[in-house]
């Protein structure tokens, strides 16, 4: 059964030119590259940038059946500042086409049949797409919340609601600290992850820590993986490829420590390239891991 990824698809405008992006799109591409069946739910404008994005989606081997074409808003654009390769910052234009994903019965059917439904907080910034997301969540089997808090494009109450609906949550360490501050709770990472899992009845909580690797709370246990040392070109798409690799391991019933290590290596591999969706295979990831072990 397919995985359904919901949310933004856009152009990241870099000093070197524009690159296709958007977290749900990036996750979908990387899931496909790792051998998973996946569909993308999004919306582009009826313009040249939208046509180029649709062509790129198809070139990556993904269907465009669930990418809507809107006539009232332009295709999304994000201006990325990569002066610090390890901490890319973004200026996200609004409103754009992906803010207005419309609810359709075929989307409901897709989500009902999907093994996993992946969504993020950025797509919920505007009422149009947010209402569609909320409706689709009621039909999803296993819900994966990819926290993506880009100021000023999120609201605390929306993030809390999405946590309530999720089964597995992935965020970075900055987001973990901010969310815990909302509740006035302990910000020590293992303690915070356990608290979130209990508070929101989550099967798993995953926190990425940049070059320091990642943590995973699952099965009542904490798993750690160190970072994988690479020469970073930029970190755009690294977290998205990490999530794709983690979900591949999760669906295969892999041991949590092993899936976390593989996910860290996948994110590191993508960071050695420019742009969010470089081509790679599972073998490439395994070779990087093998080289680290030498």
UniProtKB/TrEMBL annotation:
PROSITE patterns: PFKB_KINASES_1, PFKB_KINASES_2
GO molecular function: kinase activity
Gene3D superfamilies: 3.40.1190.20
Keywords: Kinase, Transferase
Domain Carbohydrate kinase PfkB: 17-279
Top-rank taxon: Bacteria
InterPro entries reported for this sequence: Carboh/pur_kinase_PfkB_CS (IPR002173), PfkB_Carbo_kinase (IPR050306), PfkB_dom (IPR011611), Ribokinase-like (IPR029056)
Family the UniProt entry places it in: Belongs to the carbohydrate kinase PfkB family.
Record's protein name: Carbohydrate kinase
Source organism: Hymenobacter telluris
Lineage: Bacteria, Pseudomonadati, Bacteroidota, Cytophagia, Cytophagales
């Amino acid at each position: 059964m397919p995985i359904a990824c919901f949310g933004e698809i856009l152009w990241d405008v870099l000093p070197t030119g524009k690159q296709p992006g958007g977290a749900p799109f990036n996750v979908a591409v990387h899931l496909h590259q790792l051998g998973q069946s996946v569909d993308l739910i999004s919306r582009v404008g009826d313009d040249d940038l939208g046509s180029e994005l649709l062509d790129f989606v198809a070139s990556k081997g993904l269907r465009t059946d669930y990418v809507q074409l809107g006539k009232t808003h332009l295709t999304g654009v994000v201006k990325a500042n990569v002066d610090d390769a390890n901490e890319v910052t973004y200026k996200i234009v609004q409103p754009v086409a992906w803010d207005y994903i419309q609810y359709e019965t075929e989307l409901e059917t897709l989500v009902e049949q999907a093994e996993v439904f992946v969504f993020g907080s950025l797509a919920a910034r505007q009422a149009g797409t947010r209402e569609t997301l909320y409706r689709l969540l009621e039909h999803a089997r296993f819900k994966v919340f990819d926290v993506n808090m880009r100021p000023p494009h999120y609201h605390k109450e929306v993030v809390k609601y999405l946590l309530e609906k999720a089964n597995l949550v992935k965020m970075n360490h900055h987001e973990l600290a901010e969310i815990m501050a909302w509740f006035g709770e302990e910000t020590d990472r293992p303690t915070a992850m356990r608290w979130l899992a209990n508070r929101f009845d989550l099967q798993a909580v995953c926190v990425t820590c940049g070059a320091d690797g990642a943590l995973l709370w699952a099965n009542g246990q904490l798993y750690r993986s160190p970072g994988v040392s690479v020469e970073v070109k930029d970190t755009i798409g690294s977290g998205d490829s990490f999530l794709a690799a983690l979900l591949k391991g999760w669906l295969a019933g892999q041991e949590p420590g092993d899936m976390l290590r593989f996910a860290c290596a996948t994110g590191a591999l993508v960071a050695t390239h420019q742009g969010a969706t470089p081509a790679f295979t599972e073998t490439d990831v395994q070779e990087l891991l093998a080289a680290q072990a030498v």
